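Collaborator request, handled under Task 6.
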Amino acid sequence: MIQQTIHNLILLIFLMFSGICLAQNSLVGDGFGGRKWYVPTNYTVGSYSAYSICYENCDSQLNQLYGWGSNIYNSIGIGLTTTGVNVPTLIPNIYDIKYISAGYLVSVIKHDNTAWAWGTSGNYSGFGGNPIQVMSNVSFLDAGSNTLCYVKNDGTVWSIGANSAGHFGDGNVNYLFNSIPVQMLNINNAARVAVNFLSTIILLKDSSVWSVGDNYGGNLGLGSNITQTLIPMQVAGIPKIIDIKSNAEATIALTVNGNVYTWGIDYNSGYYNYSPTLIQNLSNIIAISGCDDGNHFLALDENKNCYGWGKNNYNSSFGSPNPSYTPSLVATDVIDIMAGETFSYIVKSDGSLWATGFTNLGSVWLNLPSNLETDTFTLIDPSLAPEACKIVGGGLPCFDELINDSIYFPNVFTPNGDGFNDHFYFPNEGINELNCQIFNRWGTKVYEWDNINGFWDGKTAAGNDCPDGVYYYIVNYKRIASMDTEQHTGYITLIR
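Structure tokens returned to the collaborator:
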């Protein structure tokens, strides 16, 4: 009976918390969006604005969304009353979310898989300043300046906005903003999408890439003989792809082995790449980032090096004072990357937030002067800005429980052998005995240690890798000061 009760408790906790997911360039657990240890943080950026998902505590999926920066396109979701805000501002009715994407238009996916949207497009039509529900059963989305594109759980693709280039893929062209979702033809196995003003790029679950819309500048990657297609066509000449990103002029695609292909305007030569071309000086890349109406890209490699390249029209948007037509190193010790239109954010492995670029009519600089413009990544401190929330995710440890000022309980670790957050353990100050048992979702014990210096490396007692997921632990420890034996239970999320 006791064993059954423990089993039921573990299963209940797993069901309550297995939906936890941090938002950024990746959806944890969807099999796409990054390689090796890459896990997104809870911060992200749009064209001229920034956002953070603020959690009630480390152990909770309960969260609320805050936004700051320019509100000229109603991107902050606080109505039409202001052109911008300089501090994080609560966005009404947007809570319990697991993913966000932002351009001029902004949309989120909640844990119930409903999609909510707000903002106005480049021609000032759209949803206005207050979030509304637009879709259900949604698994992924990408937001741009005039289009919101969604992948549903059944693998179909749907678009909202202005279909001015035929990039909705329904066989039609429509210059008027349409708030009713339109289904793309012939696509029923999609994993991800990337939009820009003229085209939509679709990544299928078989890792093939398709495109639809206008081929200006080689936007579609379908060769130079096609000017436009209103029905999705497959992009040839690229290997297995796990992520795609587009900006105003080009698309990049990340392969499963860490290479990056590009098509569209060639920043190196100024000519057009009508077909996918391998970027020669990038390797071992784990994450990529771009903004629908921006002119630059960021890439992160497995050694935590951040590379930027593009026109750099604003002389500061990716951490370099000059245009860089081939990827150049712009920052080190980086764990997350976020490319906007006129600025970019990165997060370093110590949890610090850095920004480069500028914004008008609302600042992205938090504790720094609102009119700051810089061409190198500059440290900003969210903790000094009112209502800013702590950066979590990205493999950063999360501590939010304090027991008698000495014992902390982490809730996530990433045992992938990179030397960063590889072990689940308890700091041993103030205790002289400790036993910990780890259980999987079915209540089966997978690992145990019985000393204060022990830890779990994500393997079973037999030495086999445990799968990603949420595990339940029971830890008993004895305090040196009181010699009292105490017990703590909780869950730990394993992400490789």
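The cover message to the collaborator said: "The two ends are 35 Å apart (CA to CA). The chain has one helix and 35 strands. Please let us know whether this matches your experimental observations."
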